[in-house]
Amino acid sequence: MKLGIREENGSTFAYILVVMVVSFLLVAGLIQVTTSENNQARYQTDYMKAYYIARAAAESMAMEMERMDNSYYEHFYDAEQIAAAQDMLDGIGDAEVSVERVDEDGFYRITSIGTYEDVSSTVKIMMEYRKRSELDFGVYAKEDMEDVSIKDFEGDLGSGGDIDFKPAGDEDDVTGTVSRNTVNNITITMPETTDLYNDLDRSGDFLDTGQAGIKLIKKQGPGLTEEEMANFGEYDVDIEVRESMIISRWDDDYNGSVEVDTDFAEYYIQSGEDHEDTFTFTTSDPGDSEEWLVLYLEGEVEFGKDATLDVQGNHNLIIIVEDGIEISGTINVHDENKIWFYIMDEPDDNQVDLTIIRNTLIGIEGHPELLTFYLNPFTSRPLVANIDNNPDFYGYIIGPEATVNMKNGESTVYGGIYAKEVNIEASSSFYQVNPSNPNVTLYKQMGIAYWE
Questions:
Q1: Which position among 35, 246, 305, 388 has the lowest Cβ density within 10 Å, counted as fewest Cβ atoms?
Q2: Where are the domains of the chain?
Q3: What is the pLDDT of residues 310-334, one digit of tens each?
C-alpha cells in the first residue's frame, strides 16, 4: 500500500509539473505575442507619424515651387537641392526634402523623407513646369481687389488677397466661383530684342540712312510719290507688309490700312531653359515650330481710330512695342492667325503703357486665344493697361507685375486677365471664354503632375 501511495503522489506531482510548464509556456508565448503586437502597433503609429511628416514637408515644398519665380529653377540644373526641418511633431520628428530636375521636359521630383523616433517614411511628388492654354480664373489679381463694381461677370474671379465688392451685392452677379487668398502664380517670357532689331534694321537698303524703319503718318495734301516713299519710308496710304520690319513712327491721324501677310513669316521662337526670362528668335527651324512675322514698333505708338490692322496668311504675327501703345483702331484676323503683343516699355514716367479705347471690335469673335497682350514684368515700375469705352475686346492681357484697369464706358472683355492688380469699375462686363485650341500657349506654370 505504501508503495502504491508513493506512486500516486509521484504521478500527481508529474501532472502538476506538466501543467505548470505548459502554463508557463502559454503565458510566455502570450507575453511574446502581446509584446510583438504592441511593438507592431507602436511601429505602425510611428510610421504613420513619419509618413505625415514626409507628406507635409513634400506639400510645403510643392507650394513653394508653385510660388517661385522661374529664375530659381536654375539652381536645380546644377545639382539636387536639399532642405531640412527638425523637431517636428512632438519635438521628435525630422524631415529632409530634396528637389532634382528629372529631364528637359520640365519635370522636377520632390523626395521627402520623414523620421519619427527610429522610423522613416518617403513621399515623392513629380512637379511639372508646364505650358498652359487657359487661365484657371477669368480674372485674377495677385493682390487685393478693392471696390469691385461690375455689370456682368460670367466666369471665375480670383485673388491672392481679399476681394471687396462695391456694392456688396455685386458678388451675387458672378456666375462662377469667387476665390480669395489663393495662389495662382504664372510666368511669361519676353523677347530679347537687341539682335532682332539689328537684323530688322534695313536703313541702308531702301530708306534714309538715318531712318531704321517706315513711318505711318498723315501728311497734308496728296499722297506721297514713290520717290518720297523710297527716300523717307513715309506712308499716308494703305500699305502691304510682306516681311518683318521696324515701324519707327505710327501717328494717331494715320487712317490707312496695314495689311500683313504672314505667309512671308521668317522667324521661329527659340525655346530656352525653364529658368530663362527671355526668348530669342531664329531663322532656322528648330523642328515642329510655328513661324512668325515680326513688327517692331519704336517709340510711342498711336493706333488711331480710323486705322486698320488686317492680318491674314498661314502663320502668326508678333508685335513688339518698344514704349507704350494706344489702340483705338480695328484689328482684324482673317485666317485664325495668332497675334501676340509684347509691351516692353522701360518706363521712366507715369504714362499708361497699354490703352485699348473706343473700339467697336478688337480680335476675333469667339476666339480670344488668338490675341494676347504680354506686359513686361521686368521693368523698373509696374506697367499699366487701361480698357475703356471698348464694347468688344476678345483676347487676353497677361502681366504678372502689371496693373490692369477695366474702366467705365461699357467696357466688355471676352477672354482673360491676369495681373498683379486688377481694378474693375462700374458698367464693365467680363465673359470667361477658354481657348478652343489646346495648342495655344498663354503662359507657363509650375504645378503637381502626380504623386509617385
A1: 35
A2: 2-131, 134-446
A3: 999 999 999 999 989 999 888 888 8
